[in-house]
Write a structure and sequence with these properties.
The chain is of the alpha/beta class. It contains 17 helices and 28 strands. A hairpin with a 6-residue loop joins strand 1 and strand 2. Helix 1 packs antiparallel against helix 2 and helix 7 packs across helix 8. The longest helix is centred in the first third of the chain and has 17 residues. The protein is globular and about 75 Å long.
Length: about 575
């Protein structure tokens, strides 16, 4: 791995870093704004900064003050990037929020914005004119914290900035300290965003330094991403890190990617992309959902790292991806894994470059009893995939119920201490106190440590306990995804209370395209058999049509939201036995 040098002291806030990069790399491409049906817009570092200055004047003139939270609700647009930088220049805090999905009911969208404004204290919303009828009533509502709704895409930015106004705003940017808050990022959610994470300039820049070193950033790198910028992996990994390092990133519309995933492969081919972050479900989509004729001309030989993160890494997903794309120049050793979260800016650990990811064949029943043990010949096996070793200036430990560290090989909650730790949940001291103690953040994730590497196997809150036995929903979902007639990746498992038995029972919701009663009965039986194959008794099967499942803002079906939807009433689309 080549040495990665990143001197924080020469520019200790993000605006200073961007300004430095604009001087160093004036004509180097910073952001390639990719579109499916035309030529991309190519921002150089110099042009991006100059445009950001123009937007910062409008932002200041709108009355936005240092420390105000500016929520950006905007579709894929080339001017998003200078708007975002312009907010930061005025010492306000940008907060990227999801543009409403066409299928999301307007009331749900309004409830989400209102919940965020009440909890996070959103001050301004920067959006598109189309959303004004949805958002304006929230501003006019008595007691609203939202001061105004602004439409920056309509601002005039062709004229030169008044030097005196520019100097005043630059003075504000110069006065910002590295310990001051830089951005507000909301953790994943389905409608509201419950945990507003505050990150300082120091947290982000330290993360750039140490995580950049762990993945061996080079000046020749180019990130290619479709990840939404309201998600930590997209915002930090694919946007802030390359922007701070002075390397280009290709930004693809997430909505366009959903319609045609091959768009990212085409961008990699044309732009010679080297780095990408992907959630696990994307590997399956690439391996199974793209027709062969769409791949004509695809060349992935430039890719040196594909980083799997944001959900437990699955062996089968990597294998399918590598098997399909090796003939398109993809090097299987480029498959890597990461573990992290918004509260630590992004990454805590990362697998090493140039060698296969470590995997262990674990006895599934022993895992359920809280212990990693290599599976013997007659055991039910779960292949656990490593998320890697610690990055510099980050510590992790596995703890038991009393939050005391437990021995390697025992399953417990993951706790993290990092130089790039968040400053707490904004206006949410009780939630901060729940998860933060003695400098350690208690993640709610379950995993174990083996040979100095960390294996993440599920979420503590999602574990199903049947007669005292811990069952990880990921195991059930993984095996049901292979059942014929089920839409892959559109399965959730959760626990339903069984008052008669005094315990939980396993329930599965799966999307299917089968229609007749006979087909549904056969599919249900196949799901039950799939559960038996891993020694899990599935008590209830809910079959639903395609696109029924509610997804989180990270793009994954939400166990909690879908469980609540089922419990809330009789949906005529649900078939259950």
């Amino acid at each position: 791995m080549s040495e990665f040098n990143f001197d924080i002291e020469e520019a200790n806030t993000l605006w200073k870093r961007w300004s430095l990069n604009a001087k160093k790399y004036t004509n180097r491409e910073a952001i390639i704004h990719w579109v499916a049906d035309g030529e991309p817009h190519r921002w150089t570092f110099g042009d991006l900064l100059n445009s950001a200055k123009k937007y910062s004047v409008h932002i200041k003139e709108a009355g936005i003050e240092p420390g105000n939270v500016c929520a950006i609700v905007m579709r894929h647009n080339p001017n998003f990037y200078p708007i975002y930088l312009g907010i930061s220049r005025t010492a306000a805090l940008p907060a990227c929020l999801a543009y409403p999905n066409p299928r999301l009911h307007p009331d749900k969208f309004r409830q989400g914005i209102e919940g965020m404004s009440q909890r996070s204290g959103l001050d301004y919303i920067l959006t598109e004119r189309e959303l004004e009828p949805l958002i304006r009533p929230l501003i006019e509502k008595p007691g609203s914290t939202i001061k105004d709704i602004l439409f920056p895409l309509e601002w005039e930015t062709q004229s030169e900035v008044d030097p005196k106004v520019d100097e005043k705003i630059e003075a504000i940017a110069e006065s910002v300290k590295d310990t001051d808050p830089f951005l507000l990022q909301h953790s994943s959610g389905t409608t509201g965003l419950q945990k507003p994470v505050v990150l300082s300039h120091a947290a982000v820049l330290n993360h750039v330094k140490y995580y950049g070193k762990s993945i061996g950033f080079k000046e020749t790198d180019k990130v290619v991403s479709w990840l939404p910028l309201y998600h930590d992996m997209g915002l930090i990994g694919a946007y802030h890190i390359p922007l701070a390092c002075g390397i280009p990133s290709v930004q693809i519309d997430p909505f366009q990617w959903v319609l045609a995933p091959v768009i990212q492969l085409e961008a990699i081919t044309k732009e010679k992309g080297t780095l990408l972050w992907l959630p696990n479900f994307a590997y399956n989509i690439y391996a199974e959902k793209i027709d062969a004729e769409e791949l004509e001309g695809v060349d992935l030989s430039s890719v040196r790292r594909v980083i799997n993160a944001s959900e437990p890494i699955r062996h089968d997903s990597h294998q399918k991806f590598a098997d399909r794309f090796v003939k398109f120049g993809f090097n299987p050793l480029a498959l890597t894994g990461m573990y992290g979260m918004a509260e630590t800016t992004l990454a805590c650990c990362q697998t090493e470059d140039g060698k296969p990811i470590s995997e262990v064949a674990a006895d599934r029943n022993e895992l359920s009893n809280g212990k990693f043990k290599f599976a013997e010949a007659d055991a039910v096996v779960r292949i656990c995939v490593s998320s890697g070793v610690l990055i510099d200036e980050c510590k992790m430990k596995i703890v038991g119920e009393n939050r005391n560290e437990i021995a390697d090989g025992l399953v417990g909650e993951v706790a993290v201490h990092s130089i790039s730790m968040f400053d707490g949940y904004r206006n949410y001291p009780e939630k901060t106190a729940e998860v933060f103690a003695g400098g350690w953040f208690y993640t709610g994730d379950y995993g174990f440590k083996h040979n100095n590497e960390f294996y993440i196997i599920g979420r503590k809150k999602d574990i199903i306990i049947v007669a005292g036995k811990n069952i990880y929903p990921e195991d059930i979902e993984n095996v049901v995804n292979h059942v014929e007639g089920i839409v892959p990746g559109r399965v959730i498992a959760f626990g339903e209370d069984d008052e008669a038995m005094g315990t939980e029972q396993v329930a599965v919701v799966a999307e299917t395209k089968t229609e007749s009663e006979e087909e549904k009965k056969n599919t249900r039986m196949a799901i039950l058999r799939a559960g038996m194959s891993i020694d899990v008794n599935i008590h209830k099967v809910y079959l639903v049509p395609s696109r029924w499942l509610i997804k989180s803002s990270a793009g994954k079906p939400s166990r909690k939201a879908n469980k609540e939807r089922l419990i809330s009433g009789n949906d005529p689309q649900v078939w259950s036995k």
